[in-house]
Amino acid sequence: MAIFTPRVVLASLLALPVALGLGTPKTCSNPTLSCSTSTSTDLCCVNSPGGQLLQTQFWDTSPSTGPSNHWTIHGLWPDHCDGTYDSNCDTARAYTNISDILKSFDKTDLLDYMNTYWLDEDGDNESFWEHEWGKHGTCISTLDPDCYTDYTPTQEVPDFFQKTVDLFKTLDSYTALANAGITPSSTKTYTSAAILAALKASFGYEVIIQCSSGALDEIWYSYDVRGSIQTGTFVPTDPDGSKSDCATSGVKYLPKSGGGTGTTTTATTTSPTSTPTGTPGTFSGTGYLNAITGGSQTGCLISAGTWYTSGTCATYTAAASGSGFTLKSSKGPCGISSSSFTCASGNTATVFTAVGGLLSYNGDTTFYAAAVPSGSTQEAISTSSQSISVSFQWQSL
């Protein structure tokens, strides 16, 4: 991916296609630049009060998400022009079926891209997208349904996700850093000044970096927008309000322990993106539950307990209990209820055992699903006989 410059960014964004919908975004004859001294009362033609749009990116390493040489998408955030922000602005439009909405607008290519570059660290991409839309997307004034003629319900959703992805594609953070000699390492550290200078040299303006436990894990790029986010121009700018929180020196930029090359645009991950450090089959501590079917590994379980082949595996915790062990994900305890395997906060934990290194329930290591999952589809796991037999092997972290 080419390095970005302000002129390249602007030219690219001007050429970006508008997300399709049956309705049409309002035409603005003299659009106002957000966060400028100009004023407008037409909130369909100027983003307000969330006038500064932040394209935010993740570098997840524990667990790793996404290609090993590419940052991933966090979101697109409408901040006030002083660094403050609103959130969850329209609960009536806090949709919970993002994938289905995108498919209904024939956005399967967009969905595939999101399943490669817009990933939840626990493998629950759908919930992550719902969160980003509900918290941030509903606060973008120019995406209000009243800003469309012949509005088609939910059409603002593909507009939001398409614009976020299109913007992200112009911001190759990995290459920007690598060109300045800043590459992931388990031993090297860097100064914040060097990281910020490398990103500014490519973007043209200051950016915000965030660290966790001393390691670089987020970058925020700031834009003002002339007009609506659907049809307007994104203008790179310095951030208002928020500042970087990384230490002055000793900043780690840890390598991802897996992933691809960053050039794939379809989701094909079928194995964990972190290298295990324990022994397969030993259910103790934290690990992945890899799905074994037809004699080979095909995906894994994500945090709700569903089988998935196109995302990051969920981290499970195995804890000794009686003659076996219990399992828990970020969603809650895992259990068998009415023949279904689920993980949720209200569950009563089931005591499982291991047989031959495989997860066992009542002495049986065979579980079932209606089909082998593909693309963004998740399959529920059952102990009752269905079309597909599958077993689950523990892979310690």
UniProtKB/TrEMBL annotation:
Lineage: superkingdom: Eukaryota
Protein name (record): Ribonuclease T2-like
EC class of the enzyme, as a word: lyase
One GO CC annotation: vacuolar lumen
Residue ranges annotated for the RNase T2-like C-terminal domain, each copy included: 282-395
Organism, as annotated: Lachnellula hyalina
Major location category of this protein: cytoplasm
Region (Disordered): 257-280
Low complexity compositional bias, start-end: 263-280
EC number of the protein: 4.6.1.19
Molecular function in Gene Ontology: hydrolase activity; ribonuclease T2 activity; RNA binding
InterPro entries xrefs: Ribonuclease_T2_eukaryotic (IPR033697), RNase_T2-like (IPR001568), RNase_T2-like_sf (IPR036430), RNase_T2_His_AS_1 (IPR018188), RNase_T2_His_AS_2 (IPR033130), RNaseT2L_C (IPR057328)
Job of this protein: Rnase which modulates cell survival under stress conditions. Released from the vacuole to the cytoplasm during stress to promote tRNA and rRNA cleavage and to activate separately a downstream pathway that promotes cell death. Involved in cell size, vacuolar morphology and growth at high temperatures and high salt concentration.
Signal peptide segment: 1-21
Alphabetical GO biological process terms: RNA catabolic process
PROSITE patterns from the UniProt entry: RNASE_T2_1 (PS00530), RNASE_T2_2 (PS00531)
Active-site residues annotated for this sequence: H74, E132, H136
Keyword terms, alphabetized: Cytoplasm, Disulfide bond, Endonuclease, Glycoprotein, Hydrolase, Lyase, Nuclease, Signal, Vacuole
